[in-house]
Amino acid sequence: MHSTPCLNKNLVAALPRLLRTSQPMIQAALFGVLAATAIQAQPAPTSTNNTGGAGGAPGGGFRRMMEDSTNIVKLSSIHLRDVCILPDQATKTYYMVGPGFRTVRVYTSEDLANWQGPRTIFRPPTNIWDNIPVVNIWAPEMHTYHGKYYLFLTFDTRNRFPEQWRDWLPRVTRGSQILASDSPVGPFTPFANHSTLPVDMMTLDGTFWVEDGVPYMVFCHECVQIKDGTVESVRLKEDLSATDGEPKRLFNGSDASWSKKSDEYGCHVTDGPYLYKGKAGRLYMIWTSGGYTGYTTGIAISDSGKLAGPWRQQAEPIYAKDGGHGMLFTTFEGRLMMVLHSPNGPGARPHVFEMEDTGQTLRIVREFTGETP
Question: How buried is residue 226: exposed, middle or buried, by Cβ count under 10 Å (0-12/13-18/19+)?
């Protein structure tokens, strides 16, 4: 997800992306927001463990903010952005993953109401992209495939492309990558020392889809590079180690009437695609952009039921209350759910909703709070 002017990603949990466009005084204020929110997000830990892999953690007070915890907390007390919930059939456990500055964090639950954590399950080594330092991790997702666990996440850097535009945002090396593990808590290992997607593209928010037995990554080509952001797909090799072919554009951000063009830059954001095959055979994709009432989640529909589309945009957003970067999952009892974060700023936290597949579209039934009525 983004914030101004192209809704730049992770206002709180991903401060460095905002720093790229801010003046020094604003930078200092944003770091203060990060620190305050990180403190708010983490309950006082009863115990800690350092399972985050290679790479040194930040020191001092910031390190304490990011310590692992075994506390049990309510859903309503968690402050985390760009979350993904994996119902793991093997362990009958829900894994809620999200970004923690330059790490991937996880909470676990058996009932969606009470969550244990957070715990760090991945921290990149300093040389994960060789001589290009990774400064942040965005929007991690966890998926299972053929008995393994995979993280789909985006690495952000400050490595500038040769071509820069006047009066525009920095165009940098940024891309979605796949990491693999035998366990949902790691260790997770990358297949290569660069993004899974083409390194000359600014890509983000990669997600996973399997169609007719073939694995794909669906992702966003960022508006910072192409102005009118897109959602695209690319075939993956069977072991998910690399792409198998060229990306194909599915649609542009401007295709949706609810997506508001940036007043300052004239760009359309595309964020957080996630797919679900409906009971009537339609393929639904929720995705997020800047809307007329804040960060907004809409739905694209492929009536053919195929990833290739054609895709049409539902005129009415599915959620327009300054929230987005949603994903869909099915509970162990068979209920369809959506999780997204709201508001899109300080205080952002996961909101879980019960959903209905009407056969024509998806709609929110009610919010699940985990509290007893």
Answer: middle
pLDDT digits (tens, 9 = 90+) for 157-189: 999 999 999 999 999 999 999 999 999 999 999
Q: How far is 281 from 350, CA to CA, in rounded Å?
A: 29
Predicted model pTM? 0.86
Q: How far, in Å, CA of 345 to CA of 357, rounded?
A: 30
Produce one character per residue of 323-335: b if its CB has 16 or more CB atoms within 10 Å, e if not: bbbbbbbebeeee
With CA atoms as reference, report the closest residue to 349 among 83, 60, 25. 83
Q: List the one residue out of 117, 52, 110 whose CA is nearest residue 79.
A: 117
List pLDDT tens digits, range 304-357: 999 999 999 999 999 999 999 999 999 999 999 999 999 999 899 999 999 999
How far CA 91 is from CA of 94, 194, 279, 294, in Å, comes to 9, 32, 27, 38
Query: What spatial distance separates the first Cα and last Cα of the chain, rounded to whole Å?
Result: 32
Measured in whole angstroms, how far is the alpha carbon of residue 13 from the centre of its chain? 12
Look up residue 51 and give its two tokens: 């399972």
Hey, what domains does the chain have and what are their CATH numbers?
Answer: 15-265 (2.115.10.20)
